[in-house]
Amino acid sequence: MEALRFGVGIDSPGYNLFATGLSGSGRATTVRAFLNEIAVHLPTPGDWLHVHNFDQADRPKILKLPAGRGRELAADMERFIQQARQQITHAFETERYGERRRELATQMAHRREPMIEELGDFARKRDFGIEATPGGIVAVPTHQGKPITPEDVERLSESEHEDLQRRGTEVQTQIAIIFRRLGQLEREGIELLASLDQEIARFAIEPLLHGLRDKYAQEQGVVEHLGRIGEDIPNHLPDFRQTGPESAGPQPTSPLEAALASDHTNRYRVNLIVDNTGLDGAPVAVETNPTYYNLMGRVEYRATFGTMFTDFRQIKGGALHRANGGFLILEAADVLRNPFAWEALM
Q1: Which of 60, 298, 327, 332 could form a disulfide bond with 293, CB atoms 3.0-4.6 angstroms apart?
Q2: Mean pLDDT rounded to a whole number for the chain
């Protein structure tokens, strides 16, 4: 007992205790009881969590919170995701949002009409009409406003035919120019609509984020992470609202893509590696099967439509994580029997 007290009092890296004796002499029971007596007077270590890294997805970030706050944050983020879905969906169903969409559509139409009229005037001055076909817009030669038949074209003289081809080429070139401008206008419209959607989403989730920032104002890491969530959600609105024909975002083309899209909100959850809720003092962890993975933790995978995926939520802690800030009790013989366990501990 004096040796145990002396050994526990050496608070320096690399110092460990090794107790040996006859089987059945009560070594494990004595050590555990002694450490429990010591641990209750030591400070309680905090909770450890993994959260998504928005800059490098394969390098999760670590957050440390006071004991019990980790479980609280995990529950808060679950509620946040549910409430964000409701708020965003409601925001896109309001009359105000519909009015702003119609205003954008009217604005785009007012900018599109002069281009179409310009193309029509250009073609008419060259005795051509504009006709929409399944293959696109084509120029049709006309005479006194009526289309010229192929038979009429064949009766033209060589010079008239050459003149017709020249004018037709000019019109086709102008069609290409106008359609490039219309394409650019269409892209601008999509961008404006996306900006509107993002603005609406930010307005919808800001009260939720504001409440969480106030609650965790003393935890700088949590506040920064909430800020990144607020920036990320408006860029992934299909995961929070019902997509339909009017949605500007791409639609899933396969069940796998749909599953991955619905799984995207997992990045806003947290992975509670160490939960010290209710712990009085320091932890005393006992690992009866000290394999490499049971000591060090592991990265697990999940199957989705026959494909294996992993992310920060699949990281599972080991005995060293649970014992962090306290004590870890191991059977030395068991450690040596498990491949890589001893080397990993050293």
Answers
A1: 298
A2: 88
